[in-house]
Amino acid sequence: MVKQLDEITRxxxxxxxALQNQDARAYTMICDQLGLxxxxxxxxxxxxxxxxxxxxxxxxxLADDMLKQEMPVKKPRKKRIRKKQVEYNKLRxxxxxxxxxxxxxxxxxxxxxxxLREIMGYTHLFVGRGEKIRLEDAKPTRVGEAYKKCYDMGxx
Length: 156
Description:
By secondary structure, the protein is mainly alpha-helical. It contains 6 helices and 2 strands. The protein folds into 2 domains: 2-68, no CATH class; 83-153, no CATH class. The model has no long low-confidence stretch (mean pLDDT 82).
């Protein structure tokens, strides 16, 4: 009970300050909190009330406008087989058809280079620490290793 009286006293002091400062918003809010019906300055009270109504209307319209704006619709991605997987499968089929010995990295280097270039689209191979060399300049062991990796990635 004492807390309520202290709160009412505090609000009344704030209401008087708002009235003296002609702070319409604060005066209206405090009068409403206190539940006053006998308002000393109706013009000030109405100004605060109309300001609150205008503010509420503005934010309401703003929210409506934001909801009405068309949000970009993300197009669903089509599920597709990864292009590389198709290439790996093609390389594996072609290798089996021609009869390339994938296990021996030293044999069939010319055909392996041709397949890596035409089927996989390779022009260079990485060697060492990110260094690239042209496919034709690569050692047969490096060509054979790259070819075997691609072959192994293909589905049986």
